[in-house]
Each structure stands twice: as structure tokens, then as C-alpha cells.
């Protein structure tokens, strides 16, 4: 008996669970057409509002006015099989929520027609507890239940966990996935979560989570349980209090074109569910004014984004975020959308009330991060870049250019100086010769 216990403990000590993620990215115009009830947009003649003063523009507009409908452009999904008959559902990996939910039959406002039929599962148990899940850009209502869940292949672990069976959803249009798999651990008083049930069933050894978001060529994945990799190159930062995957502002800085962007928001949080980034108004104004580089700021009513007119994305540079000593580059195409001579910034207005910057999955591409739950810290691994960072080098070239101009002017001035000096000396010699000749004549005549 003791031997069996020791073997079980040894297995649990190395237990973790890895699931593969599929990156799904939608064409922006098609996505917006779906959001616009199928009415096509005219990308060559977008409806825009010129903005002279962004503060005045915001006076008559509520919070969350920008970007709330662009959340689901990019999704990182995995397959879960639910119930005794293993009904397959596609769910988005969410590091901003803690519950798994899927739609029931005739769900109002749910994003897909694929639903979970509890009547076909002999292991389903309805807890008759109403539950609401609120996202930054939507909400879901349903009933909390209990059933078997299997992740990935048939040989994967099967375990019982809580599932919210959604009967109504709001503001989730555009989602391709059927539901969301929230993976963050629960706080005190929140009850159990997905990771709690993994531990209860001895599938993982801790509530630690590692996530890597690739760009399609690299395999994206989420790993539950202790990370066994070498962490020598990992940068560790303290996680926020209100957000599990959040980092306090004193450990984070933003920069663009070699200039630091002052940020006053207290926390920066990761969000794998959304494709865009939500920024409080005070910092959104600073970031936008930095990116527009003196161009006229426009608000695109049909797209819910701020932006400027531009010839191409080549007019911009990568955005740099530094987490303590860890540097992360956000590629131009990840934070700007180019549509027919217009460059749209993938940021939305999260209002004045929020004191957190939400970094969407487009801003985390190539990023691998580990959350150590017990120690309340997040580890950031070296970023896997698709290409060399597009960094502004204007300052170095400018100094070289100015130095060359200075040297050229100095050389020219020196040449002029020596030329005049030589000419002056030659003139003095000629004058002395003439004077000498005149004296000889006068002396000759005198005598």
C-alpha cells in the first residue's frame, strides 16, 4: 500500500498537461461585414471623423466606444470533448477568466450553431445554479453544471469539471469558436475552477500555467502544471493583485522610435481572448499622439478604431515593451491595420474607470509566459520573432549626417582661410617688390 502511494506521489510530482492551440485569424473586412449584419463596407471611402482635440471628441461619447466589436479577429482555440458521448466543441483559451462555458441548444446570441446537448450525456449533472460571465467585450448567461471533459486526443485525460451551459450571450458576434476555456486559478470565495479540477483528479501537480502564442508556423500551446524547463533566460516579475496575468506598471515601460511613452496606468494584463488592446483614455491619448507623428487623427466609425492616412505600414516602426529586463517587440502589422491608404491603430478606449492596460493576443505573438501561482510571479521567456525588429535608427543616422556636414563645413572654411592667407601673403610680397623698385628709381634720380 505504501509503495502504491509513493508511486502515485512520484507520478504526480512530474504531472502536467499540455494542449495544442490553433491560431485562427479572420480577414478584417469580412469580419466587420459579419458584425455589420452582412452589409458590405466600402474600404476605399470609409466614414471618418477628423479629430483636432481628442478630449473634446470624448466628451459626448461613453466609455468603451472604440474597438469593442473587434475582439475576436484572432482566436487561439483548442478542442474539448464533453460528456459520456464526447461531444466536440471548439473553445478559445482565456487567461482572463476561470470557467469553461459552451452553448446549449437554442442559445440566444451564441456565436455558433454547434451546441452541447446534455440529454445525450449520461454523466451530466445540472447544479441548478445560475451564473453570469462578464468579459471586457461581452457577457454570457447560463447554468452551472458538472460533466466529464476530455482534452485533445481520445487517449488524453478525462475528468469531471464544472461547465457553464450558456443559454444567452451578448456582444460575441464574430467569434468562430463555440465557447471559452478560462484557465486562471480561482480566488478565495470564487469556488473551484478548471485548474482546480485538474489537481483534484491528479492530472497536474500545481496551478502553474505556461502559454506560448505562435504566429501559425510555430506551434502554440498551453501547459498546466509545473514547468520543468531551464529558466536561466527567463525574466521574473511580480504579478498584479487584481489580474492573475497582470504586471505592475513599475516593471513595464513602452517606447516608440527610441522615445519612452509615459504610462500612468498601474497594471498591464495579458488577454488571450481578445485581438486588440484596451487602454484607459489618459494613456490612449498619449500613445495615439505618439504614433500619429503629426498627421491628422481620424476616427473610423465603421471600424471602431483611431488611425491616420498613410501610404503603407513602412511609415511606422515596431512598438517596444520592456518588462523589467525583458524586451518584447510588437510588429507593425500586429498593432496597425492597413486598409486602402489608411492605418488603423488596434487599440480601443477602455474609459476612465479602468486602471489597467489589456494587451490582446496580437500584442503577445511570439511570447511565452509562465504564471507561478503560489509565488504570484510571471516569467517571460525570450521572444520568438518572425523577423528582425523594425527599429527606428534615425537618431544615429542623423548624428552621422550632422557630423559629416560639420566636417564638410570645417574643411571648406579651412580651405577658404588658407587660400585667403596665401593670397594675402602673395600680395604683400608683390607690394614690397614694387616699393623696393620705386626707391631705387628715386635714389637714381636723386644722384
Spatial shape: globular
Helical content band:
10-25%
* Fraction of residues in β-strands: 35-45%
User: Remind me, CATH topology of the largest domain?
Assistant: Cathepsin D, subunit A, domain 1
Q: Count of helices? A: 7
Low-confidence stretches: 1-13, 64-69, 431-436, 438-447
List how many beta strands DSSP finds: 27
CATH-defined architecture of the largest domain: Beta Barrel
Please give the order of strands in the largest beta sheet.
Answer: 3-4-9-5-8-7
Radius of gyration: 32 Å
| Global structural class | alpha+beta
Largest sheet report: 6 strands, mixed, barrel
Whole-number tally of structural domains: 3
Mean pLDDT comes to: 81
Distance between the termini: 145 Å
- CATH domain class of the largest domain: Mainly Beta
Task: Please name the fourth-level CATH homologous superfamily of the largest domain.
Answer: Acid Proteases
Transmembrane segments: 398-419
Domain Peptidase A1: 76-381
Keywords: Aspartyl protease, Hydrolase, Membrane, Protease, Signal, Transmembrane, Transmembrane helix
Protein name: Peptidase A1 domain-containing protein
